[in-house]
Amino acid sequence: TPSSGTGGSDRIATTLTSALPFPLVPKHGSPARKPKYPPPPVRLRYRSGGTRNRSARCFGSPVPPVPEMAPSGTASAEGSPGTTIHVCQSGTCLSKGADATLVEIEELAGLVGGNGCGVEPTGCLGYCRRGPAVAVAKKGARPRYFVGIKTPEKSADVVERATGEKLPPLEDLPAGARARMETARASKRIEYLTSAYRWNEALACLLEQASRQPTRDPGLEQTTREILRQVGYGDLSGGLSLTEMPASVSGYVPWTLVSAEAVSAHSAVFRFETRDPKRGTPHPRGRGRMPNPVTWHTTMLGAVGANPEGPLPWIERDYTPISSALEWERGRCSILIKIYGDGALTQWLVEHAAGILGGGGSEPPVRVWLSKPVPTLSVPSLVPATSNGDGAPLPGSVLLLLAGTGIVALPQVLAHREPHRFLGISTPRNSQLRCPIDVVHSCREDDLLMLPSIGEWCLEGTRPHPRFRGIRRYDLLVTGASTTDPPFSGCVSASGGRDPWALVQGGLPPNATVHRSRRLTEEMVGEALGRAVRPCRVVVSGPDAFNEAARSFCLASGLVEPGQVTVLAA
Protein backbone atom coordinates (compact mmCIF):
# COMPACT_ATOMS: atom_id res chain seq x y z
CA THR A 1 0.00 0.00 0.00
CA PRO A 2 1.55 3.33 -0.96
CA SER A 3 2.43 5.55 1.94
CA SER A 4 1.91 9.27 2.03
CA GLY A 5 4.64 11.65 0.99
CA THR A 6 5.37 14.94 -0.69
CA GLY A 7 7.94 15.82 -3.30
CA GLY A 8 10.99 17.83 -2.40
CA SER A 9 13.03 18.18 0.76
CA ASP A 10 15.57 20.67 1.98
CA ARG A 11 17.48 18.00 3.86
CA ILE A 12 18.15 15.83 0.78
CA ALA A 13 20.65 17.39 -1.60
CA THR A 14 20.16 17.14 -5.34
CA THR A 15 23.73 15.95 -5.83
CA LEU A 16 25.33 13.12 -3.95
CA THR A 17 28.64 14.96 -3.65
CA SER A 18 26.98 17.62 -1.55
CA ALA A 19 24.99 15.13 0.51
CA LEU A 20 27.81 12.82 1.56
CA PRO A 21 30.18 13.82 4.37
CA PHE A 22 33.11 12.35 2.43
CA PRO A 23 34.26 12.93 -1.18
CA LEU A 24 33.44 10.33 -3.79
CA VAL A 25 36.41 9.99 -6.13
CA PRO A 26 37.14 7.06 -8.43
CA LYS A 27 39.60 4.50 -7.13
CA HIS A 28 42.71 4.43 -9.33
CA GLY A 29 45.00 1.46 -9.83
CA SER A 30 42.45 -1.23 -8.95
CA PRO A 31 39.53 -2.53 -11.01
CA ALA A 32 36.02 -2.09 -9.73
CA ARG A 33 35.04 -5.06 -7.61
CA LYS A 34 31.92 -6.91 -8.66
CA PRO A 35 29.14 -6.12 -6.17
CA LYS A 36 27.81 -8.93 -4.05
CA TYR A 37 24.17 -7.87 -4.18
CA PRO A 38 21.68 -9.29 -3.73
CA PRO A 39 22.85 -11.43 -0.79
CA PRO A 40 21.33 -14.86 -0.22
CA PRO A 41 17.92 -14.84 1.46
CA VAL A 42 17.71 -15.12 5.22
CA ARG A 43 16.56 -18.57 6.32
CA LEU A 44 14.13 -18.28 9.19
CA ARG A 45 12.63 -21.03 11.29
CA TYR A 46 8.98 -20.65 12.24
CA ARG A 47 7.43 -22.57 15.05
CA SER A 48 3.81 -23.11 15.82
CA GLY A 49 4.26 -22.72 19.56
CA GLY A 50 3.62 -19.63 21.63
CA THR A 51 1.05 -18.09 23.89
CA ARG A 52 -2.44 -17.59 22.57
CA ASN A 53 -3.88 -14.14 22.59
CA ARG A 54 -7.22 -14.43 24.39
CA SER A 55 -8.10 -10.76 24.07
CA ALA A 56 -11.53 -10.12 22.62
CA ARG A 57 -10.99 -7.25 20.24
CA CYS A 58 -13.44 -6.08 17.62
CA PHE A 59 -12.47 -4.29 14.41
CA GLY A 60 -14.58 -1.17 14.47
CA SER A 61 -14.99 -1.13 18.24
CA PRO A 62 -12.64 0.86 20.51
CA VAL A 63 -9.05 0.59 19.31
CA PRO A 64 -7.02 -2.25 20.93
CA PRO A 65 -4.30 -1.31 23.42
CA VAL A 66 -1.43 0.45 21.69
CA PRO A 67 1.85 -1.50 21.78
CA GLU A 68 4.49 -0.17 24.10
CA MET A 69 7.27 1.96 22.65
CA ALA A 70 9.90 0.28 24.84
CA PRO A 71 10.82 3.30 27.01
CA SER A 72 14.17 3.15 28.71
CA GLY A 73 14.25 2.84 32.46
CA THR A 74 14.26 0.31 35.24
CA ALA A 75 12.57 -2.94 34.31
CA SER A 76 10.16 -4.57 36.68
CA ALA A 77 11.01 -8.05 37.94
CA GLU A 78 8.47 -9.80 35.79
CA GLY A 79 10.61 -12.33 33.91
CA SER A 80 9.93 -16.02 34.35
CA PRO A 81 11.00 -19.32 32.80
CA GLY A 82 9.07 -20.16 29.65
CA THR A 83 9.22 -16.61 28.32
CA THR A 84 9.90 -16.22 24.59
CA ILE A 85 10.82 -13.03 22.75
CA HIS A 86 9.46 -13.08 19.19
CA VAL A 87 11.15 -10.62 16.81
CA CYS A 88 9.18 -9.82 13.66
CA GLN A 89 11.07 -10.61 10.45
CA SER A 90 8.48 -9.48 7.90
CA GLY A 91 9.60 -7.47 4.91
CA THR A 92 8.52 -4.13 6.34
CA CYS A 93 10.23 -4.70 9.69
CA LEU A 94 13.36 -6.02 7.95
CA SER A 95 13.54 -2.80 5.94
CA LYS A 96 13.62 -0.96 9.28
CA GLY A 97 16.42 -3.08 10.76
CA ALA A 98 14.54 -5.97 12.40
CA ASP A 99 17.31 -8.47 11.71
CA ALA A 100 19.70 -6.21 13.65
CA THR A 101 17.13 -6.06 16.45
CA LEU A 102 17.15 -9.87 16.53
CA VAL A 103 20.94 -9.96 16.83
CA GLU A 104 20.91 -7.35 19.61
CA ILE A 105 18.23 -9.12 21.65
CA GLU A 106 20.05 -12.46 21.31
CA GLU A 107 23.31 -10.88 22.49
CA LEU A 108 21.69 -9.07 25.41
CA ALA A 109 19.62 -12.07 26.51
CA GLY A 110 22.81 -14.14 26.57
CA LEU A 111 24.51 -11.62 28.87
CA VAL A 112 21.94 -12.17 31.62
CA GLY A 113 21.84 -15.91 31.16
CA GLY A 114 18.43 -15.66 29.49
CA ASN A 115 16.60 -16.53 32.73
CA GLY A 116 14.75 -19.24 30.82
CA CYS A 117 13.99 -16.75 28.04
CA GLY A 118 14.17 -17.81 24.39
CA VAL A 119 14.58 -15.57 21.36
CA GLU A 120 12.99 -16.54 18.05
CA PRO A 121 12.25 -14.89 14.69
CA THR A 122 8.60 -14.80 13.71
CA GLY A 123 6.34 -13.63 10.93
CA CYS A 124 4.49 -10.34 10.77
CA LEU A 125 2.96 -9.26 14.09
CA GLY A 126 0.63 -6.73 12.47
CA TYR A 127 2.49 -3.56 13.48
CA CYS A 128 4.22 -2.93 10.16
CA ARG A 129 4.32 0.85 10.11
CA ARG A 130 5.67 1.04 13.67
CA GLY A 131 8.34 -1.65 13.30
CA PRO A 132 10.61 -3.24 14.15
CA ALA A 133 8.05 -5.03 16.32
CA VAL A 134 8.70 -7.48 19.17
CA ALA A 135 6.32 -9.68 21.15
CA VAL A 136 7.11 -11.05 24.64
CA ALA A 137 5.05 -14.20 25.25
CA LYS A 138 4.79 -15.81 28.70
CA LYS A 139 2.90 -18.88 29.77
CA GLY A 140 -0.57 -18.05 31.00
CA ALA A 141 -0.35 -14.38 30.03
CA ARG A 142 -1.34 -12.30 27.04
CA PRO A 143 1.63 -11.36 24.79
CA ARG A 144 3.04 -7.87 25.21
CA TYR A 145 3.99 -6.00 22.06
CA PHE A 146 6.80 -3.47 21.67
CA VAL A 147 7.28 -1.35 18.56
CA GLY A 148 9.95 0.98 17.24
CA ILE A 149 12.85 -1.17 18.53
CA LYS A 150 15.48 0.65 16.47
CA THR A 151 18.29 1.18 18.98
CA PRO A 152 20.35 -1.05 21.33
CA GLU A 153 18.82 0.85 24.26
CA LYS A 154 15.30 -0.16 23.27
CA SER A 155 16.41 -3.74 22.66
CA ALA A 156 17.93 -3.78 26.15
CA ASP A 157 14.68 -2.53 27.66
CA VAL A 158 12.76 -5.39 26.01
CA VAL A 159 15.23 -7.94 27.38
CA GLU A 160 15.00 -6.46 30.88
CA ARG A 161 11.21 -6.59 30.81
CA ALA A 162 11.22 -10.17 29.49
CA THR A 163 13.82 -11.58 31.90
CA GLY A 164 13.19 -9.37 34.93
CA GLU A 165 16.93 -8.76 35.27
CA LYS A 166 18.82 -5.49 35.04
CA LEU A 167 21.43 -5.27 32.28
CA PRO A 168 24.72 -3.45 32.81
CA PRO A 169 25.07 -0.08 31.06
CA LEU A 170 25.60 -0.57 27.35
CA GLU A 171 28.93 1.25 27.46
CA ASP A 172 30.15 -1.38 29.96
CA LEU A 173 29.25 -4.35 27.75
CA PRO A 174 32.06 -6.60 26.52
CA ALA A 175 33.80 -5.09 23.52
CA GLY A 176 32.97 -8.09 21.33
CA ALA A 177 29.24 -7.95 22.06
CA ARG A 178 29.10 -4.21 21.49
CA ALA A 179 30.98 -4.48 18.21
CA ARG A 180 28.70 -7.24 16.94
CA MET A 181 25.60 -5.19 17.71
CA GLU A 182 26.97 -2.05 16.10
CA THR A 183 28.02 -3.96 12.99
CA ALA A 184 24.63 -5.65 12.71
CA ARG A 185 22.69 -2.41 13.16
CA ALA A 186 24.84 -0.70 10.54
CA SER A 187 24.76 -3.39 7.85
CA LYS A 188 21.73 -5.66 8.21
CA ARG A 189 19.16 -3.13 7.09
CA ILE A 190 21.21 -2.12 4.06
CA GLU A 191 21.71 -5.79 3.12
CA TYR A 192 17.97 -6.41 3.16
CA LEU A 193 17.11 -3.27 1.20
CA THR A 194 19.62 -4.09 -1.53
CA SER A 195 18.39 -7.69 -1.74
CA ALA A 196 14.86 -6.32 -2.31
CA TYR A 197 16.10 -3.74 -4.87
CA ARG A 198 15.17 -0.83 -2.59
CA TRP A 199 18.11 1.29 -3.72
CA ASN A 200 16.83 4.72 -2.65
CA GLU A 201 16.14 3.59 0.91
CA ALA A 202 19.48 1.78 1.07
CA LEU A 203 21.37 4.88 -0.03
CA ALA A 204 19.45 7.00 2.49
CA CYS A 205 20.56 4.57 5.24
CA LEU A 206 24.16 4.93 4.10
CA LEU A 207 23.93 8.71 4.23
CA GLU A 208 22.49 8.56 7.73
CA GLN A 209 25.19 6.15 8.84
CA ALA A 210 27.97 8.22 7.28
CA SER A 211 26.71 11.41 8.96
CA ARG A 212 27.27 9.78 12.36
CA GLN A 213 30.85 8.76 11.58
CA PRO A 214 33.49 11.11 13.06
CA THR A 215 35.96 10.16 10.31
CA ARG A 216 35.81 8.77 6.79
CA ASP A 217 34.88 5.09 6.63
CA PRO A 218 36.40 3.27 3.60
CA GLY A 219 33.82 0.51 3.97
CA LEU A 220 30.95 2.98 3.64
CA GLU A 221 32.59 4.58 0.63
CA GLN A 222 32.97 1.23 -1.10
CA THR A 223 29.37 0.22 -0.37
CA THR A 224 28.16 3.58 -1.66
CA ARG A 225 30.14 3.17 -4.89
CA GLU A 226 28.67 -0.28 -5.41
CA ILE A 227 25.09 0.94 -4.91
CA LEU A 228 25.66 3.91 -7.21
CA ARG A 229 26.96 1.56 -9.88
CA GLN A 230 23.93 -0.68 -9.41
CA VAL A 231 21.54 2.21 -10.03
CA GLY A 232 23.33 3.53 -13.11
CA TYR A 233 25.43 6.32 -11.58
CA GLY A 234 28.82 4.68 -12.01
CA ASP A 235 30.70 7.72 -13.36
CA LEU A 236 31.84 9.68 -10.33
CA SER A 237 34.16 12.09 -12.14
CA GLY A 238 33.25 15.76 -12.22
CA GLY A 239 30.41 15.51 -9.69
CA LEU A 240 27.25 13.45 -9.91
CA SER A 241 23.82 14.89 -10.62
CA LEU A 242 20.87 12.94 -9.29
CA THR A 243 18.14 15.00 -10.91
CA GLU A 244 17.65 12.74 -13.96
CA MET A 245 16.71 9.07 -14.20
CA PRO A 246 19.64 6.84 -15.22
CA ALA A 247 19.71 4.74 -18.36
CA SER A 248 19.52 1.50 -16.35
CA VAL A 249 18.81 0.39 -12.79
CA SER A 250 19.98 -3.00 -11.52
CA GLY A 251 17.08 -5.37 -10.90
CA TYR A 252 14.60 -3.19 -12.83
CA VAL A 253 13.43 -2.93 -16.44
CA PRO A 254 11.27 -0.21 -18.03
CA TRP A 255 7.61 -1.04 -18.70
CA THR A 256 5.18 1.01 -20.81
CA LEU A 257 1.68 1.80 -19.59
CA VAL A 258 -0.69 0.62 -22.33
CA SER A 259 -4.05 1.05 -20.59
CA ALA A 260 -5.63 2.13 -17.32
CA GLU A 261 -9.17 1.52 -16.16
CA ALA A 262 -10.93 2.88 -13.09
CA VAL A 263 -12.70 -0.06 -11.42
CA SER A 264 -14.08 1.80 -8.41
CA ALA A 265 -14.30 5.35 -7.12
CA HIS A 266 -10.85 4.98 -5.53
CA SER A 267 -8.97 2.28 -7.46
CA ALA A 268 -7.80 1.54 -10.98
CA VAL A 269 -6.12 -1.30 -12.87
CA PHE A 270 -2.95 -0.28 -14.71
CA ARG A 271 -1.69 -2.57 -17.48
CA PHE A 272 1.95 -2.54 -18.53
CA GLU A 273 3.95 -4.23 -21.28
CA THR A 274 7.64 -4.76 -22.00
CA ARG A 275 9.87 -6.73 -24.33
CA ASP A 276 12.95 -6.51 -22.16
CA PRO A 277 14.22 -10.07 -21.51
CA LYS A 278 15.83 -8.92 -18.25
CA ARG A 279 12.44 -8.67 -16.53
CA GLY A 280 13.04 -12.08 -14.97
CA THR A 281 10.40 -14.58 -13.90
CA PRO A 282 8.59 -15.38 -10.65
CA HIS A 283 9.64 -19.03 -11.07
CA PRO A 284 13.25 -19.35 -12.27
CA ARG A 285 13.91 -22.75 -13.80
CA GLY A 286 15.91 -24.59 -16.44
CA ARG A 287 19.24 -26.45 -16.68
CA GLY A 288 18.09 -29.02 -14.19
CA ARG A 289 16.56 -26.47 -11.83
CA MET A 290 12.94 -27.11 -10.85
CA PRO A 291 10.61 -24.13 -10.36
CA ASN A 292 9.88 -23.12 -6.78
CA PRO A 293 6.14 -22.38 -6.40
CA VAL A 294 5.66 -19.00 -4.69
CA THR A 295 3.39 -15.99 -4.70
CA TRP A 296 5.25 -12.83 -5.61
CA HIS A 297 5.28 -9.06 -5.85
CA THR A 298 7.23 -6.36 -7.66
CA THR A 299 8.60 -2.94 -6.73
CA MET A 300 7.63 0.07 -8.81
CA LEU A 301 9.83 3.14 -9.24
CA GLY A 302 8.11 6.48 -9.67
CA ALA A 303 10.32 9.20 -11.14
CA VAL A 304 8.94 11.97 -8.92
CA GLY A 305 12.24 13.86 -8.66
CA ALA A 306 13.59 15.15 -5.34
CA ASN A 307 11.82 13.48 -2.44
CA PRO A 308 12.24 13.02 1.33
CA GLU A 309 12.81 9.25 1.13
CA GLY A 310 16.36 9.35 -0.21
CA PRO A 311 18.80 11.13 -2.54
CA LEU A 312 17.74 9.32 -5.72
CA PRO A 313 15.11 10.93 -8.01
CA TRP A 314 12.49 8.24 -7.46
CA ILE A 315 10.38 6.57 -4.79
CA GLU A 316 9.79 2.83 -4.40
CA ARG A 317 6.55 0.99 -3.64
CA ASP A 318 5.74 -2.72 -3.55
CA TYR A 319 2.71 -4.03 -5.48
CA THR A 320 1.22 -7.48 -6.00
CA PRO A 321 0.05 -7.94 -9.61
CA ILE A 322 -3.38 -9.41 -10.26
CA SER A 323 -2.16 -10.91 -13.53
CA SER A 324 -0.55 -14.34 -13.55
CA ALA A 325 3.10 -15.30 -13.57
CA LEU A 326 2.61 -16.64 -17.08
CA GLU A 327 1.45 -13.20 -18.23
CA TRP A 328 4.57 -11.67 -16.69
CA GLU A 329 6.76 -14.07 -18.65
CA ARG A 330 4.92 -12.99 -21.80
CA GLY A 331 5.72 -9.34 -21.07
CA ARG A 332 2.36 -8.25 -19.65
CA CYS A 333 1.48 -7.15 -16.12
CA SER A 334 -1.73 -5.78 -14.54
CA ILE A 335 -1.63 -4.05 -11.15
CA LEU A 336 -4.62 -2.96 -9.06
CA ILE A 337 -3.72 0.29 -7.28
CA LYS A 338 -5.72 2.37 -4.85
CA ILE A 339 -5.22 6.10 -5.38
CA TYR A 340 -4.48 8.12 -2.25
CA GLY A 341 -4.79 11.88 -2.12
CA ASP A 342 -1.47 12.17 -0.29
CA GLY A 343 0.26 9.21 -2.00
CA ALA A 344 3.37 10.47 -3.75
CA LEU A 345 3.64 7.62 -6.26
CA THR A 346 -0.08 7.16 -6.93
CA GLN A 347 -0.57 10.86 -7.55
CA TRP A 348 2.42 10.88 -9.91
CA LEU A 349 1.01 7.86 -11.73
CA VAL A 350 -2.50 9.32 -12.12
CA GLU A 351 -1.10 12.65 -13.31
CA HIS A 352 0.97 10.99 -16.04
CA ALA A 353 -1.78 8.54 -17.00
CA ALA A 354 -4.59 11.13 -17.10
CA GLY A 355 -4.97 10.81 -20.88
CA ILE A 356 -5.16 7.01 -20.76
CA LEU A 357 -7.61 7.03 -17.85
CA GLY A 358 -9.78 9.42 -19.84
CA GLY A 359 -10.02 6.95 -22.70
CA GLY A 360 -7.41 8.54 -24.94
CA GLY A 361 -3.71 8.07 -25.45
CA SER A 362 -0.60 9.49 -23.84
CA GLU A 363 2.19 11.40 -25.56
CA PRO A 364 4.93 10.62 -24.78
CA PRO A 365 4.15 7.08 -23.53
CA VAL A 366 4.16 6.67 -19.75
CA ARG A 367 7.13 4.58 -18.65
CA VAL A 368 7.66 3.07 -15.22
CA TRP A 369 10.33 0.79 -13.81
CA LEU A 370 9.31 -2.55 -12.31
CA SER A 371 11.70 -4.80 -10.43
CA LYS A 372 12.25 -8.47 -11.03
CA PRO A 373 9.64 -10.56 -9.20
CA VAL A 374 10.31 -10.91 -5.48
CA PRO A 375 8.92 -14.01 -3.68
CA THR A 376 6.24 -13.32 -1.05
CA LEU A 377 4.86 -16.66 0.18
CA SER A 378 5.95 -20.24 -0.27
CA VAL A 379 3.32 -22.58 -1.69
CA PRO A 380 1.54 -24.67 -0.50
CA SER A 381 2.49 -23.82 3.11
CA LEU A 382 1.73 -20.07 2.56
CA VAL A 383 4.44 -18.99 4.99
CA PRO A 384 6.84 -16.13 4.16
CA ALA A 385 9.14 -17.15 1.33
CA THR A 386 12.23 -16.23 3.37
CA SER A 387 11.49 -19.19 5.66
CA ASN A 388 11.44 -21.63 2.71
CA GLY A 389 8.49 -23.34 4.37
CA ASP A 390 10.75 -25.21 6.79
CA GLY A 391 8.70 -27.19 9.29
CA ALA A 392 5.36 -25.77 8.14
CA PRO A 393 2.70 -28.49 7.70
CA LEU A 394 0.67 -28.70 4.51
CA PRO A 395 -2.66 -26.97 5.15
CA GLY A 396 -5.88 -28.94 5.28
CA SER A 397 -7.65 -25.71 4.32
CA VAL A 398 -6.89 -22.02 3.83
CA LEU A 399 -8.72 -19.01 5.26
CA LEU A 400 -8.00 -15.63 3.67
CA LEU A 401 -8.91 -12.56 5.75
CA LEU A 402 -8.57 -9.65 3.32
CA ALA A 403 -9.43 -5.96 3.38
CA GLY A 404 -9.40 -3.31 0.65
CA THR A 405 -6.70 -3.86 -1.96
CA GLY A 406 -5.45 -6.81 0.09
CA ILE A 407 -7.77 -8.76 -2.23
CA VAL A 408 -4.86 -8.85 -4.73
CA ALA A 409 -3.45 -11.80 -2.77
CA LEU A 410 -6.41 -13.96 -3.83
CA PRO A 411 -5.73 -14.48 -7.58
CA GLN A 412 -2.11 -15.40 -6.92
CA VAL A 413 -3.10 -18.01 -4.35
CA LEU A 414 -5.81 -19.48 -6.60
CA ALA A 415 -3.36 -19.69 -9.54
CA HIS A 416 -1.56 -22.50 -7.69
CA ARG A 417 -4.62 -24.72 -8.06
CA GLU A 418 -3.79 -24.96 -11.79
CA PRO A 419 -0.09 -24.14 -12.09
CA HIS A 420 0.31 -25.39 -15.64
CA ARG A 421 -2.52 -23.16 -16.88
CA PHE A 422 -1.83 -19.96 -14.93
CA LEU A 423 1.84 -20.19 -14.05
CA GLY A 424 3.24 -22.02 -17.04
CA ILE A 425 5.03 -24.51 -14.80
CA SER A 426 4.49 -28.08 -13.67
CA THR A 427 4.64 -28.70 -9.94
CA PRO A 428 4.27 -31.90 -7.89
CA ARG A 429 0.82 -32.61 -6.52
CA ASN A 430 2.02 -31.96 -2.97
CA SER A 431 3.06 -28.43 -4.05
CA GLN A 432 -0.41 -27.53 -5.32
CA LEU A 433 -3.20 -26.04 -3.23
CA ARG A 434 -5.54 -29.03 -3.30
CA CYS A 435 -7.57 -27.94 -0.30
CA PRO A 436 -10.67 -25.81 0.44
CA ILE A 437 -10.15 -22.04 0.36
CA ASP A 438 -12.53 -19.70 2.20
CA VAL A 439 -12.40 -15.90 1.89
CA VAL A 440 -13.64 -13.13 4.19
CA HIS A 441 -13.30 -9.81 2.38
CA SER A 442 -13.95 -6.41 3.98
CA CYS A 443 -14.26 -3.28 1.85
CA ARG A 444 -16.09 0.01 1.50
CA GLU A 445 -19.21 0.29 -0.62
CA ASP A 446 -17.51 2.76 -2.99
CA ASP A 447 -14.43 0.55 -3.39
CA LEU A 448 -15.78 -2.91 -4.29
CA LEU A 449 -12.99 -4.70 -6.11
CA MET A 450 -12.71 -7.76 -8.41
CA LEU A 451 -16.32 -8.86 -7.89
CA PRO A 452 -16.81 -10.26 -11.44
CA SER A 453 -13.74 -12.48 -11.04
CA ILE A 454 -14.73 -13.47 -7.51
CA GLY A 455 -18.18 -14.49 -8.76
CA GLU A 456 -16.56 -16.82 -11.29
CA TRP A 457 -14.26 -18.33 -8.66
CA CYS A 458 -17.24 -18.91 -6.39
CA LEU A 459 -19.05 -20.74 -9.21
CA GLU A 460 -16.01 -22.92 -9.72
CA GLY A 461 -16.16 -23.79 -6.03
CA THR A 462 -19.73 -25.07 -6.33
CA ARG A 463 -19.03 -27.46 -9.21
CA PRO A 464 -18.10 -31.06 -8.38
CA HIS A 465 -14.49 -31.79 -9.23
CA PRO A 466 -12.01 -34.45 -8.16
CA ARG A 467 -9.64 -31.66 -7.25
CA PHE A 468 -10.55 -28.44 -5.47
CA ARG A 469 -11.22 -25.40 -7.65
CA GLY A 470 -12.14 -21.79 -6.98
CA ILE A 471 -13.48 -20.57 -3.61
CA ARG A 472 -15.50 -22.80 -1.29
CA ARG A 473 -17.11 -19.91 0.64
CA TYR A 474 -16.96 -16.13 0.23
CA ASP A 475 -18.15 -13.56 2.80
CA LEU A 476 -18.22 -9.92 1.70
CA LEU A 477 -18.34 -7.33 4.49
CA VAL A 478 -19.43 -3.96 3.10
CA THR A 479 -18.97 -0.81 5.19
CA GLY A 480 -19.86 2.81 4.49
CA ALA A 481 -18.31 4.89 1.75
CA SER A 482 -15.04 6.69 2.32
CA THR A 483 -15.21 10.28 3.56
CA THR A 484 -12.37 11.37 1.24
CA ASP A 485 -13.01 12.78 -2.21
CA PRO A 486 -12.96 9.93 -4.76
CA PRO A 487 -10.53 10.37 -7.66
CA PHE A 488 -12.87 8.45 -9.99
CA SER A 489 -16.38 9.57 -9.09
CA GLY A 490 -19.16 7.97 -11.12
CA CYS A 491 -16.95 5.06 -12.07
CA VAL A 492 -18.53 2.04 -13.76
CA SER A 493 -16.83 -1.29 -14.16
CA ALA A 494 -15.88 -2.85 -17.46
CA SER A 495 -18.06 -5.87 -16.67
CA GLY A 496 -21.01 -5.16 -18.94
CA GLY A 497 -20.81 -1.46 -18.11
CA ARG A 498 -22.36 -2.14 -14.70
CA ASP A 499 -21.42 -0.65 -11.40
CA PRO A 500 -19.81 -3.30 -9.14
CA TRP A 501 -22.51 -2.74 -6.51
CA ALA A 502 -25.11 -3.72 -9.12
CA LEU A 503 -23.43 -7.10 -9.33
CA VAL A 504 -23.82 -7.54 -5.57
CA GLN A 505 -27.48 -6.49 -5.66
CA GLY A 506 -28.08 -8.75 -8.64
CA GLY A 507 -26.99 -11.73 -6.66
CA LEU A 508 -23.81 -13.74 -6.20
CA PRO A 509 -23.46 -17.54 -6.29
CA PRO A 510 -25.02 -19.48 -3.39
CA ASN A 511 -21.67 -19.94 -1.64
CA ALA A 512 -21.23 -16.13 -1.42
CA THR A 513 -22.80 -14.02 1.33
CA VAL A 514 -22.99 -10.22 1.54
CA HIS A 515 -23.03 -8.55 4.97
CA ARG A 516 -24.05 -4.90 4.64
CA SER A 517 -22.76 -2.38 7.21
CA ARG A 518 -20.75 -4.99 9.07
CA ARG A 519 -17.11 -5.16 10.06
CA LEU A 520 -14.91 -8.12 10.90
CA THR A 521 -15.58 -9.46 14.40
CA GLU A 522 -14.13 -12.15 16.62
CA GLU A 523 -17.34 -14.15 16.33
CA MET A 524 -17.18 -14.12 12.54
CA VAL A 525 -13.55 -15.26 12.51
CA GLY A 526 -14.36 -18.02 15.01
CA GLU A 527 -17.18 -19.29 12.79
CA ALA A 528 -14.94 -19.28 9.72
CA LEU A 529 -12.23 -21.20 11.56
CA GLY A 530 -14.84 -23.63 12.87
CA ARG A 531 -15.72 -24.56 9.28
CA ALA A 532 -12.08 -25.01 8.29
CA VAL A 533 -10.40 -28.37 7.79
CA ARG A 534 -7.50 -28.90 10.20
CA PRO A 535 -4.76 -27.83 10.05
CA CYS A 536 -5.84 -24.45 8.75
CA ARG A 537 -3.50 -21.79 7.39
CA VAL A 538 -4.77 -18.22 7.84
CA VAL A 539 -3.46 -15.45 5.59
CA VAL A 540 -4.24 -11.85 6.58
CA SER A 541 -3.72 -8.90 4.23
CA GLY A 542 -5.01 -5.35 4.52
CA PRO A 543 -4.38 -2.05 6.32
CA ASP A 544 -2.43 -2.15 9.58
CA ALA A 545 -5.49 -1.76 11.82
CA PHE A 546 -7.27 -4.61 10.06
CA ASN A 547 -4.20 -6.86 10.26
CA GLU A 548 -3.80 -6.27 13.99
CA ALA A 549 -7.45 -6.98 14.71
CA ALA A 550 -7.72 -10.02 12.42
CA ARG A 551 -4.63 -11.66 13.91
CA SER A 552 -5.88 -11.13 17.46
CA PHE A 553 -9.29 -12.60 16.54
CA CYS A 554 -7.64 -15.73 15.15
CA LEU A 555 -5.55 -16.29 18.28
CA ALA A 556 -8.45 -15.51 20.60
CA SER A 557 -10.51 -18.27 18.97
CA GLY A 558 -8.12 -20.91 20.27
CA LEU A 559 -8.48 -22.82 16.98
CA VAL A 560 -5.10 -21.83 15.51
CA GLU A 561 -1.63 -21.26 16.91
CA PRO A 562 0.41 -18.12 16.18
CA GLY A 563 2.55 -20.07 13.71
CA GLN A 564 -0.53 -20.84 11.61
CA VAL A 565 -1.29 -17.15 10.91
CA THR A 566 0.57 -15.37 8.11
CA VAL A 567 0.23 -11.58 8.00
CA LEU A 568 1.29 -9.89 4.79
CA ALA A 569 3.07 -6.64 5.57
CA ALA A 570 1.19 -3.51 4.54
From TrEMBL:
Transmembrane segments: none annotated. Residues 73-82 have a biased composition (Polar residues). Residues 250-380 form the FAD-binding FR-type domain. CDD domains: TRX_Fd_family. SUPFAM superfamilies: Riboflavin synthase domain-like (SSF63380), Thioredoxin-like (SSF52833). It comes from the Eukaryota. Residues 1-82 are annotated as: Disordered. GO terms for molecular function: oxidoreductase activity. This is FAD-binding FR-type domain-containing protein. It comes from Pseudo-nitzschia multistriata.
